[in-house]
Specification:
Layout: H1 2-9, H2 22-50, H3 76-90, H4 96-120, H5 130-151, E1 159-161, E2 169-171, H6 175-194, H7 202-219, H8 222-228, H9 237-257, H10 266-283, H11 287-293, H12 295-314, H13 324-330, H14 335-355
Antiparallel strand pairs: 1-2
Length: 360
């Protein structure tokens, strides 16, 4: 929106050419989203408190969590509001990747909103029935995956890029749709499973989004893409604007979500953020790098799968409680220690993922 206006005024004010640079608009998108989140945060928290949408806490979990009962949830609305407004302001609105990211993020946010609403308003601990949740996630994921396949121009745009190996691209053809579907839906649910402690999920999401924004900027720049031997994807640079907005919104939300949290993001935020990260990775062809950088999300999800499988097959639990962060809590780690250590691990994994740009 601002880009179009600036382009119109450039005939009279040459300095406005600055708005043509993705780097500048990305910085402004992050700052805009951050300011919106910090400004609107108190009002959103008060609104959620008035609506009495308090978090229900499991009684079989760490006893320290019982004090969190009643803390407003569904704070992911604040993240979505900040991201979407900032992205609309600073992105090139003729770019189809931007609109797909906005649509998928909002759609998964709606699914999460319905799930949260049923839990906190109707006091239904199950929320939206799992079969319906996965059905709508699958519908949106398949549509997004098909559109990405339809927009592909070159074979490498639908190939699986293997990190740390030079010129290693696995051609997928129509199987690309299957991969893209699993990445979107899988990442969405992985972030949701990780969102169990104050600030635990949002900071890794911010770090991964920042890194994917770097990949997006480089992939959308023909010279950099050629130099780094990564697929050149026309228009992918605008994905960096969306990613930067997510970084700013996430940091703004963390201001209120840090321990002890004033608000939780709920499924409305976690499902949407996860889907956005998955789609960003697909656009820039870095699905395997996403697995590395989002290692905390992967491990948290695997801990749930292992726990359920072990209990069904042997009647025994591998972990004291799943997801994994609860296991460490029950071992005696204070909640802030679990959170910060998971952040540190994510930072290391993100740096490893970024290293794949040169280490081949």
């Amino acid at each position: 929106m601002i880009l179009s206006f600036a382009e119109w005024l450039q005939h009279w004010y040459g300095a406005l050419h600055l708005f043509n640079y993705v780097t500048f608009r990305g910085l402004m998108a992050a700052l805009t989203a951050l300011v919106i989140a910090l400004w609107a945060g108190p009002a959103v928290i008060r609104w959620l408190t008035v609506l009495k949408v308090g978090q229900a806490v499991r009684t079989d979990g760490p006893q320290s969590h019982l004090a969190k009962s009643g803390t407003p949830t569904m704070g992911g609305v604040l993240i979505l509001l900040s991201v979407i407004i900032s992205a609309l302001l600073w992105s090139d609105l003729t770019n189809h990747y931007v609109w797909l990211l906005i649509a998928v993020t909002l759609a998964f946010g709606v699914i999460g909103f319905v799930d949260d609403y049923k839990k906190v308003v109707y006091k239904d601990p199950r929320g939206l029935a799992s079969r319906w949740k996965y059905f709508w996630q699958s519908v949106i994921g398949i549509i997004a995956a098909y559109l990405m396949f339809h927009w592909a121009v070159l074979p490498e745009h639908t190939g699986l890029l293997v990190p740390f190996v030079k010129n290693m691209v696995i051609e997928l053809g129509p199987w690309f749709v299957v991969l893209a579907y699993f990445v979107i839906v899988g990442t969405s649910n992985a972030v949701n499973l990780t969102d169990g402690l104050d600030g635990l999920a949002i900071m890794p999401a911010v770090l991964v989004s920042a890194a994917l924004s770097v990949f997006a900027y480089l992939s959308g720049h023909s010279v950099f893409a050629d130099y780094l031997n990564i697929p050149y994807i026309p228009g992918a640079g605008e994905v960096a604007i969306f990613g930067a907005a997510l970084v700013g919104a996430g940091l703004g939300f963390l201001w209120f979500n840090t321990y002890p949290a004033q608000v939780f993001m709920g499924d409305v935020g976690a499902l949407a953020i996860g889907a956005a990260l998955g789609l960003m990775a697909i656009i820039v062809r870095q699905e395997l790098v996403l697995v590395i950088m989002g290692g905390i999300f992967v491990v948290e999800t695997l801990s749930v799968v292992i726990q359920v499988a072990s209990f069904k097959m042997t009647g025994k639990r591998v972990f004291r409680m799943a997801p994994l962060h609860h296991h460490f809590e029950l071992k005696g780690w204070p909640e802030p220690k679990v959170i910060v250590r998971f952040w540190i691990i994510t930072l290391i994994l993100v740096l490893v993922g970024l290293a794949s740009l040169k280490v081949r």
